[in-house]
Specification:
Blueprint (H helix, E strand, L loop, with lengths): L7 E6 L2 H10 L5 E7 L5 E8 L2 E8 H7 L2 E8 L1 H6 L2 H11 L3 E2 L1 H8 L2 H4 L11 E2 L1 H11 L13 H6 L3 E8 L7
Helix pairs in contact: 4-7
Amino acid sequence: MYLKTGDVIAFKGEAWFSDIICAVTRGDVSHVGVVLEGGPCPTIIDATGREDQNGVAIRLLDDVIDMYPGRVWIAELSYDAYSMLDTQKAKAFWYAQEGYGYDYRQAFTCGLDLSDRIHIMATREDGSRWFCSELVTAGFKAGGLLPCIIAAATNPVELLRLPLYSSITQVKGCPLAIR
């Protein structure tokens, strides 16, 4: 499989918090990252709140898949979506975010749809820290693929349900079709 900038990597971990994320988002995915550089040794960027990587980091995809304790899928951008994405602008955006912190509050708010349900926590994009799907979606927005989306209101399941992908292929873990 040849990966290219913008292909999304989806994860479902084995820890209890992955189960909680899947339950509140009503899906099978608890985390996402995005391919920065494709080719024979692809790199991804993602934002996590884990102790060993708290915030935004760039990593080799093969290392991530090898070390990840759970399921992994690759969502390949469709030809039309890839054609609409200005990869240079998206990559410039994503590279500039490396080292930023993880946005726990916004991830919690987005995951529970609290901003839509009770209107006490406004969904806002401040760019000072990121959660996983917010980072990916904001890069798509910077690259012109999703110009009107609110990145801070997009959870991993919603990102994968957008009509952007030609295929979603599981590459690790017990077989499970994403819902």
